[in-house]
Write a structure and sequence with these properties.
Helix content: 25-40%
Number of helices: 6
Number of strands: 8
Strand content: 15-25%
Number of domains: 1
CATH class: Alpha Beta
Distance between the termini: 22 Å
Length: 189
C-alpha cells in the first residue's frame, strides 16, 4: 500500500506552569518532527486549552482539542516529571476524550531537572495511555537536566538530542502509518 497522505502528529505540551523548561523541549520536538518526510505537526499547549474544573471527562470536552486528536495519526506528549508523576492538568485534558485515541500511536518525551530524563513520568503515563486506547511506542525521549540542555531563550545546547530522537521519530511514524492502515482497512470483527 502506498499512501501518500501526510501523517499528522500533534505535540502536546503537558504543563501550564510559569517558567516551564518543558516548553523549550516541546518547541524543539515540534521543529524536529516537522523535518520528517511526510509529517505534519502542531503544538497543543495545555495552557491554552481551557477546561472546567467543576466536572470531568467528556462533559468538559474542548471541541478544538477533540477535533485535532481525532484527525491525528499519532501524538507526542512532552511531560515534565513532578514529584515522580505527571502534571494533573495533562491528565485532566487527556481524560476529556476516549474514542478519539483508539488505535493511535503515542510517544512520550519526559522532562526533568535531574539526571533521569523524566523516566518516572513516562512510567506513570504508560498505563494511563494504554487505558485510553493509545498504542505506546517502545522508544522514549528523555530530556535530563533540562536547564543545561537549553539556554534561557530555548536554544538547544546539547546537539546530541537531535540524533537521540531519530529512533523515536522513526518508530512513531512507522507505528502511525501501520495503525492508520489498520483503522481504515481492518475490521475488529
Amino acid at each position: 500500500m502506498n499512501d501518500s497522505r501526510p501523517i499528522f502528529i500533534p505535540v502536546i505540551l503537558g504543563t501550564p506552569r510559569q517558567g516551564r523548561m518543558s516548553e523549550h523541549v516541546a518547541n524543539f520536538v515540534v521543529d524536529e518532527v516537522a523535518k520528517q518526510d511526510g509529517v505534519e505537526t502542531e503544538l497543543i499547549d495545555v495552557r491554552k486549552v481551557l477546561l472546567a474544573t467543576d466536572n470531568a471527562g467528556q462533559d468538559i470536552k474542548d471541541s478544538q482539542f477533540s477535533d485535532t486528536v481525532n484527525r491525528a495519526d499519532a501524538l507526542i506528549l512532552v511531560a515534565p516529571e513532578y514529584n515522580h508523576g505527571y502534571p494533573g492538568v495533562l491528565k485532566h485534558l487527556l481524560d476529556t476524550n476516549l474514542k478519539e485515541y483508539i488505535h493511535k500511536a503515542v510517544g512520550i518525551c519526559g522532562v526533568s531537572a535531574g539526571p533521569f530524563g523524566g523516566t518516572r513520568v513516562i512510567q506513570n503515563l504508560l498505563p494511563v495511555l494504554r487505558e485510553l486506547g493509545l498504542v505506546c511506542i517502545f522508544w522514549d525521549g528523555n530530556f535530563s537536566t533540562v536547564q543545561k540542555t537549553f539556554d534561557g531563550s530555548g536554544k538547544l545546547l546539547e546537539q546530541a538530542y537531535i540524533r537521540r530522537l531519530d529512533k523515536f521519530f522513526k518508530e512513531l511514524i512507522w507505528m502511525a502509518k501501520v495503525l492508520r492502515n489498520g483503522r481504515e482497512n481492518v475490521s475488529l470483527t
